[in-house]
Amino acid sequence: MTLLKLENVHTYYGHIHALKGISIEVNEGEVVTLIGANGAGKSTTLRTISGLARPRAGTVTFQGTALNNVPPHKITRMGVGHVPEGRRIFPELTVRENLEMGGFSVSSREVAERMERAFTLFPRVKERLNQLGGTLSGGEQQMLAMARGLLLNPRILLLDEPSMGLAPVLVDQIFDIIQELHAQGTTILLVEQNARMALQVADRGYILQSGQIVMGDSAKVLQESEVVRKAYLGEE
Amino acid sequence: MTAVPNIASSTQRSPLEALGNWLLQYILRPVLQILLFVFIAGGSISLLALVVGFVLQTDWHGIDILRVPARINLFEQVVRQLPNMLLDGITIGFVYAVIALGYTMVYGVLKFINFAHSEIFMVGGVVGYEVMIRLRAADMLSSLSPLVVIVLMIGVAMVICGTLATVVERVAYKPLRGAPRLVPLISAIGVSFFLTDFVRGFQALNRNVFNMPYPTDQVTFFNERIVLAQGVSTTNTTLIIIVSAIVMLVGLNYFVNATKIGKGIRAVSQDQATASLMGINVNLMITITFMVGGALGGAAGVLYGLKTTNVTPYIGFIPGLKAFTAAVLGGIGNITGAMLGGLLLGMLEAFFSALLPYFPALGLGYSDIFAFAVLILVLLFRPTGLLGKKVDEKV
Question: Which residue in A170, A183, A186, B184 has a CA-CA distance of 20 to 30 Å to A20?
Fold first, then answer.
């Protein structure tokens, strides 16, 4: 079943034409990855889905509802969990408060339950509960950002460069967790520069180049394609 | 990690223990913090006063410039005046602190200085007057318990000013949310003039008055004196102002730190886009911030009216400017800083008001020069304010 669908989406930042007619689909239970160089429009695609940026043309449909005029907080409450680029932890809130923000629209009992569930994947976050978010290390902040995203209890999780700036060990950990989430049936749209890792965990993938989808296929096909191997996997 | 905070224990705590923790965290700690600030502000100003008094009692002091021999021992005078000076400083300091919170909260979420806040404060003062004279007209001013009168005045002022602040936000600021920074600032100044003259016109037509003296003399309780020590006494009004201000500061602390909405407001002030990704309605949080700030401003207006016993449509400007200064002094955007800044500024003002009458060439009216000179000095060395943090963004 198609959960999320973008049809011919054009998004602008002022005069900059960032997305030039993008169409993608994410089905329930899938991990789909968006691969592309810097400035290709990966983050803009996610921002357009979660309502932080508005498409000038085209439609974003989630569970059959058009999102074009829905404010971001309502899109979130409909089940779109966006873990933004750069983690965006609230630095002056404690780790616990950061997590509570993820459960802003539900009861505190529900928040406590969801927190316990998130801790099974992110035990490190539990150890830091009373620390301020800004005092965490980069890896811990990424864990917290993802845990906070899970507190939203999303139908689809949008992950924007979860491996950015992390040590290789931590990158492995993050991708293990993504796989674990996949196994639990979470639908994920993953934006990554680390194409090798992304294609390993994904079912399908799209290649984005200066605001346009140039290729879209199963992860296996992409991994073996000549173009992808040269441009994104660094192979000769 | 050995010291792992155990979340499971929170469910196992006995209710009594939970209540104890709650009292400690949200009542006792903030009250102690406020008292600490009072001591810091009072202590530093007392020290300043004593040093100035001591230095100026020697031959070369200011009076000498005018070739008038010193007739008084300044040091003795300062020592004698110190307790009253401190009390005065605390009272006006708390009023400034409560107003300053309105500026600092709005700045925190929108990075915008709401210059209309001073007029919200003025409207609070006028509402306090209206409530009081209506009670007097109904012959209830002397029959009702003074506590009820106070709660009624502050309560009505908070409701009206909270509503007014949200209306102002909706009409004059929200449509300009995406505009350059200067535009809403000018809009705020426009609102400020509008409110001043609207109130002036309204009261002129309604009651044909400009000065609105509080009929505090009708409530004997307000003017009863409490003797704190020999030669040191104060009125109940002072006590009412201090106590109500502390109650509001503690209440605000609870609201901001313990409630879901308060935490949402803090999240919005740190990162609006991410807050909206958490399902937080950013516009609603901004509206609530204006409402709370406006309600506090209105309450401060009543307290100010009780202290000065007279309000006019023009009382907003100077206290508003001072409260804004207090917010900057403490570190704008920082709620704790606003309290400290307000108390310090109040103390400085009280100190110079007490000292200057001994210098006939200067006089009481110049006290602001010195208070603000100190402020400029502080900002030269700490541009972010006393409790402000250096802003560095982590990517």
Answer: A186
